[in-house]
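Self-study notes.
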Amino acid sequence: MVKAMRQIIRMHVILCVLLLPLRASSQDGSFVASVDRTAVAIGEQFELTFTLNGTGSGNNFRPPTMNDFVVLSGPIQSTSMQFVNGAVSSSVSYSYSLRPRAEGKFVIAAATITYGGKQLQTQIITITVTKGTPQQKQQNQQSQDADVGRQIGDNIFLKVSVDKSRVYQGEQITATYKLYTRLNVANYNVTKMPALTGFWSEDLTESKQVQLTTEVVNGKQYRVGVLKKVALFPQRAGALEIDPMEVTLVVQMQTRRRSNDIFDQFFNDPFFGGLTNVSHAIASEPVKITVSPLPSNAPNGFAGAVGKFSMETWLDKRQTKTNEPVTLKVKITGRGNLKLLGAPAITIPPDLEKYDPKISDNVANQGTQIAGSRTFEYLLIPRHAGEQKIPAFPFAYFDVDKKSYATLASPEFVLAVEKGLDVASSSSVAGISKEDVKLLGEDIRFIKSGNITLNRKGESFVGTTTFFALSFTPILGFVGFIFYARKREKVLRDVAGLRNKKARKMAQRRLVQAKHFLDQKKKVDDSTRREEFYAEISRALWGYVGDKLGIPPADLSLDGVKDSLAVRQVPPDAVSKLSSTIEQCEFARFAPSTDSLQMESIYNESIELISTIEDHIR
């Protein structure tokens, strides 16, 4: 009897809930922004939601730039429907989980959306960020993460695996960053890319789309996705560390309301169970790599090549004439640090003029290995006739399989050079025919023959101002040339100073290329142009600070750049903005497609950043 009464009450409550009169929404759409709180402390996160209410749907949603905050997740779109007096009304929400970067008051600008042919925008929201005490931060973090931590446990983790942990300097290591999960992941953002200090790296990830496989770890079955795969070449011996990758996930989890309200208790029934999106941050553990130095008995022809290689050499022709060019090609093929190979040292006879080689690469990712070829093309110009011999030259590399050096040798080349047309004479007689020579002979007439005596009228030229000017001009010119040559030699020796002077010019070249990709993206919504744009912006900023601060590319890291800029008294807000812009460029490679307005904002910020740093570092 009691059980039957409970069933009747439950059905009655359901009918009452479904038949509750709902307030009719306005026929005109409204677009509003809301936050769960306007005052937060450093380290806390808050929710930002943009909601469109109306009888139709909107399109072309454009969020504001949120550079003052770390976007932990979003936008997460949700839709709800209501029936009011026979009419249907709906609301669409776009939610973000944010965390402030610094203290102060920050403004979240208006978002826009197109609805019914009109553009609607939200109101501006001001967020106050306070310092907070460590105890408050700990309590807030515990209250936010306690329940999530209990449910997630070890059901999600990030791990970096390497194919070897002990290598020689220059030997390839393949590092794979994998996400292991037993829960549903709605979205993810890479919040911190590994710095990889001390390594030269080459990305092996073929697709931005994560493919899931299955693995069993400690008796549990996980779905596994490869987030990043990279080939690493250590540039120095000693103990190196592969830095962690940090990722923020949006995890879909079952939740239950905690309320004394009778309706909340009723809808906690599993029949009405639902999913909620929870933001959760994870990081991989750092991995230590032991790098052994290469043996000291390096043979002639070794210039740092490590791997497994073969060599081909050839001349495009064996017979030529003086002043006609010949091409000597050297092709190195194999697997290893191909893009770091230097040109082989070739001894050329003095009668052959040699130019710096043209370098072309054909390098590809073969599974987990960097392999392909690098070709050096030397332009040779014989200046004298005769038989010219190019001696055999070595190419040495460290064989990682045999753990020893190997030397390859080219054959000796013999070039037969015949007498060709002299450059000077060819230029003086060019275009003159035999008939022209005869005509010149007829036109020449002797005016006077015999001894001719010429007498100068007026005063002597010796001792005049013009005489002294012409006498000392070569001496002054020679002294000036020596001064210029020494000054230029000093500048060229100062590599760091030269990089400093050219830093802005090099960055501007890359920004011009980024602007080209941005203009193409505006015309055609192409994801490839978006990725190339962010790659150029990232290269421009990294290259600029590296050249300006004199930091080698292998030692570049975000923390090191921040410290160096702070020492040079660059404003903290500019340093923070630089870090934010670089991180945004890295996030954009994994995040959903961004619009042209956001890309243009990044472009303008990069120009402003370079100008600000340039004003403080000379």
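Second protein, same conventions, sequence then structure:
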Amino acid sequence: MRHPRTRHPRIAACRRQGRKNPASAMLLTGILLIAFAVLTAPVRAGEKIIKSYGISTFGDLKYGPDFKHFDYVNPAAPKGGEFSTWAFGTFDSLTPYILKGNAADLSTIFFDSLMTGDADEPDAMYGLVASSIEYPESRQWVIFNIRPEARFSDGSPVRAEDVVFSFHALFDKGRPSFKVTLSDIKKVEALTPLRVKFTFKKGANTRELPMTVAGLPIFSKAYYATRDFAQSTLEPPLGSGPYMLEKVVPGKTIIYKRRADYWAKDLPVNVGRYNFDKIRIEYYTDYTAAFEGFKGGSYNYREEYLSKLWGTAYNFPAIQKGWVKKEQIKDGNPSGTQGFWFNLRRAKFKDPRVRQALGMAFNFEWSNKALFYGIYDRTDSFWENSYLQAQGMPTKAELAILEPLRKDLPKSVFTKPAFTPLVSKPTKLDRRVLRRAGRLLDQAGWKVVNGVRQNAKGDKLEVEILNDSPSFERIMNPYIDNLKRLGVVASLRNVDSAQEVEREKTFDFDIVVRRYTMSLTPGIELRGMFSSRTANLQGSNNIAGVANPAIDSLIDTIEKADSRKKLNVAVKALDRALRAMHIWVPQWYNPYHNIAYLDVFSRPKKPAPFAVGEIDFWWYDKAKEARLKAAGAL
């Protein structure tokens, strides 16, 4: 089955680098001011100042200062050709960082950031717009030294004042969640034209903040002097990244073209990357129609999320002739948190027994057998398919964190193994499980009256599932049938993707399907998903509306962990607590990427553990294209 609308909570946006074109007068002034800034920067007594080409959460970097390129790229990859794929729904904006509008896929690609991550480390960043980073051991502040050659696509230089402007634009006019993510930043200042400093609030989580600000997109202050950052628009934005807009057909097609004059194309972090001359995205409002478009050659790459199609439909002539390749690639990331999410802001979902009972009505085992062709496993953890998943009873290390929070956590956190969903019989109706669910609803005060669950006030237990994909109905309808057997007045509300986006932003739903991509080094982004501060913040990633002081405390512990060992323990404790709260109905996962593509691409022999890299470091192979043309495939 397809993955529903995915949310990527980390702020780190696009990642790129640069060349040289110094202005001597500016540099001389900068040198004098740099010396002054270093002498006057507040430093704790005896604290060491670190200056580096990169940074990681716990200080470990795979690549040395003189690295030539990332290990997983082909430094000699040719440039050229077109990569095309599809997206679900529609779009009406090229401004992905604000609440208004529905931004086009990949529209963050216009913008560079101070530093960039890689695909074979979980938490490292290396210089992009910034050539180096400076910070004290406490990480109470951070200074980035900007490359003098960094340029926006109109040729204007990227300077410290643009970084300062970008921070304030995001904080003041960006999605409301930016205020939460960036709330621990006390001050941002341009020390010189090429030197920008972020100072963090006392007591803030400084372990991760340097990387959070290093990954922020950089906008042109001059460009937005005559434009309102908060307004949605289809005007091509001015950025400093590797691609710019070539063509847009609102709601239907967007084409990005590679910038031959991209200032950072030869930096080590960019060697072997951004190889396609064009990236084209075609939009479809129907999943099956999108698949037919792929079969007909409307686009050349597809990751398949619909199990029925993967199991039965990939036998069309182009596959049989070898013109289209079908593969599975191992996914080294946590498999994500896909499920039906309850809106805890609504009174009917306040009792966890109600949520648990509603979750029991979803028969994964039957769905997997009858609908998914047995290709999925059941998800039970927020960090499924990773070493961060809580298992069994809590360990002593976990209990040390959890015990002070006991009054705000379910008793089962301490008395039972980490929650896993009941295993149903692979039959459409498992009466045993439904009887147990019914008893939970009885205990919660929702009794059956004339075949319908009602509380003492006479209110009916009504539940509506929001859906924007016709292909998902075959999973939702059997779930709804089981809910009705429990006496729940359950229904499916089909809307288009634009309506679903707006209703999610304003939390106008009972239950919605969503998938989050989780990090192996989680931190500040957890505020956006599970913190009380974002529970009622429109547009936030806290889709369920989690507002629990114990969860807030666990997130704080994760943010402040000063070793990976401590981090892992705290994440397992959070995973255990969230699972016990029944804030969602976990669905399923596949530890592989199911992909199909026209055989005109090549990729490095050494895979990257944390990315497929189809847009990032694959390339268009002219020899393969010639073979397909000779065979009549093109």
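Instructor comment on the second fold: The chain has three domains: 8-75+86-226, 243-256+272-278+288-331+591-630, 339-589.
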